[in-house]
Amino acid sequence: MLSAEEIHEIEAEAAHYPTREAVSIDALRIVQRHRGWVDDESLRDIAGHLGMSPTDLDSVATFYNLIFRRPVGRHVIMVCDSVSCWIMGCDRMRKHLCEHLGIEVGETTPDNRFTLLPIVCLGCCDHAPAMMVNRDLHGDLDPRKIDAALEKYS
Amino acid sequence: MTATTEKPLTGRMRPDGSFLDVRAYEQAGGYQAIRKVLSGGLTPKAVTDEVKEAGLRGRGGAGFLTGVKWSFVPLGKDAPSPTYLVVNADEMEPGTFKDRLLMERDPHQLIEGAMVAGFAIEADVAYIFLRGEYSLAAGRLSRAIAEAYERHYLGKNIFGSGYCLELHLHLSGGRYICGDETGLLNALEGKRANPRSKPPFPPVVGLFGKPTVVNNVETISCVPHIINNGAAWFRGLGRTKDAGTKLFGVSGKVKRPGLWELPIGTPIREILEEHAGGMRDGVKFRGLLPGGSSTPFIVEEHLDTPMDFTEMPKAGSRLGTGTMIVLDDQTCPVGMTWNMMRFFARESCGFCTPCWSGLGWAERILKSMEEGRGQSGDLEKLGFQAKMWAPGNTFCALAPGAADPLETALKYFRSDFERHITEHRCPWT
Fold first, then answer.
1. Residue of B90, B98, B133 best to disrupt the A interface, most CBs of A under 10 A
2. Which of B315, B400, B316, B287 minimizes the C-alpha distance to B352?
3. Beta carbons of B225 and B198 less than 8 angstroms apart
4. Could you say which of A31, A92, B87, B108 would form a disulfide bridge with B128 (CB–CB 3.0 to 4.6 Å)?
5. Alpha-carbon span B339 to B238, nearest angstrom
């Protein structure tokens, strides 16, 4: 069931569009912000609220990179692997993150603290290599800076 | 002031990185353009004509004349209603980091530009389509939009003129293809961002089937300055026949990667050497992509080309987004091309066969070459694929954009590709 708060936020966005379907991506984002990810039941509830078929909504949800249809950890690390960051050594940064966290890209640490995902260009190319942790952008990365940055996320 | 020192887009930004709120923006001369339009009795057509006369071309990369695009929108009482303006703030072209600065540091400039553009096309509603990862820009834009509504600069009867405009911020779910004009419109309608077949074009049949103009952030940010200072002034800013200033960026192994507002038509070499400080010690220049991953490589012999829409095609490339990615001699050109093809293959929406099938094929060939499993005939296969991605074979520009760096990499760095095959390894690892 969607919470009153979630419904309130969805309806505030819905006022900006002439159709119910148009708010689907906002609704997915809103529910994900409250729950960390979008499970099957949440997906069905959002679809029902917007008058869409769950299958249709799932085809939207799975299309977009920032909608999670599988559980993620408390903090999501997204490492840029696009061309400027690649030139500046993002493969080494990703390898360091995998070793440091003991997981592969796409996985979550056993303590549920971090999920590691790839992301396309973060628009931080003059400070490559770069990553985002939750909503925070971190640039000019090296292994030491990565370790220091991750300490802030408990 | 001379043309080379004028920085209309970035000149009033604060050096400390904070943003201009509505008060600071107005103190710096902001919201005068929209006042001039609304109180001066200018017609929508007059505004469009001024922008057309200014020679403003789309800063998202395609370079279409902005005023001409606006003029396709039907106006008047019998026109379909509502009309939409969409600001394309889905900056996801690899190597591009210019619109983020404009939104983070001077969000009201973008809002005022949207108001003027909205007036010119008689828009009822405007959306800023922002990529979901730009959280700092999202926060500052939200605040700026709220400030504008509080002062009744947005909403009904703006400045008592009768002009109404609603402006909403939409955060994307994240996908490169949303940057395509019609892919973006489908995303705004809450659908998968598959680009649409064209025609019809958005100014006639766009968002929710209504007339819609989609303009890039930098394009819209230029608009208030054109209204304030006039078309002739804007034309005079460029160093070539093209008009205005342009945000130019450099990334890669240069001494000072960064972003600068310079006259359009500034030669590549000047940007690379004077602004970016030249190559880092110990590495040599080999080539660059002038405006993001979808632009063709250029090499040393082209460095004196002015960075603009007219001159770059003469060097076999395009201005694109104006943010260059530099390839150096310590970096493998095959690896770099593989990285970009992996990106394009991953971000294809999956609709047109030459794109979803061909990009993956090319990506696998490049991967095998990097891993020492390249075979004779691979380069011919890559060249064939790139031809299959030509404009007209797909709905949108993603695949043609992928063909540009691939074909030029094969042209300029052919011996490096051949070495991967004959030596059964990547010479750079």
1. B133
2. B400
3. no
4. B87
5. 34
Residues B285-314 pLDDT 10s? 999 999 999 999 999 999 999 999 999 999
Domain harbouring B392, CATH code? 1.20.1440.230
Residue B322 and residue B338 in one domain? no
Neighbours of B248 (CB within 10 A): 28
Nearest CA among B2, B99, B107 for reference residue B58: B99
Q: Which domains does chain A have, with CATH numbers?
A: 4-61 (1.10.10), 75-151 (3.40.30.10)
Q: Are B228 and B205 part of one and the same domain?
A: yes
CB B185 within 8 A of CB B202: yes
Residues B179 and B261 in one domain: no
Short-list B99, B58, B94, B62, CA closest to B292: B94
Query: Structural domain tally of chain B?
Result: 3
Tell me if A49 sits within 8 A of A10, measured CB to CB.
Answer: yes
Q: Closest CB to B173: pick one of A29, A78, A121.
A: A29
Indicate if ipTM > 0.90: yes
Burial of A153 (0-12, 13-18, 19+ CB in 10 A): middle
Distance from C-alpha of B289 to C-alpha of A58, rounded to nearest angstrom: 37
Looking at the partner chain, which of B187, B190, B336 has a beta carbon nearest the beta carbon of A23? B190
pTM, full prediction = 0.97
Do B25 and B56 lie in one domain? The reply is yes
DSSP line for A129-142: S-EEETTEEE-S--
Please, are residues B71 and B190 in contact by the beta-carbon 8 Å criterion?
no
Look at chain A and count its residues.
Answer: 154
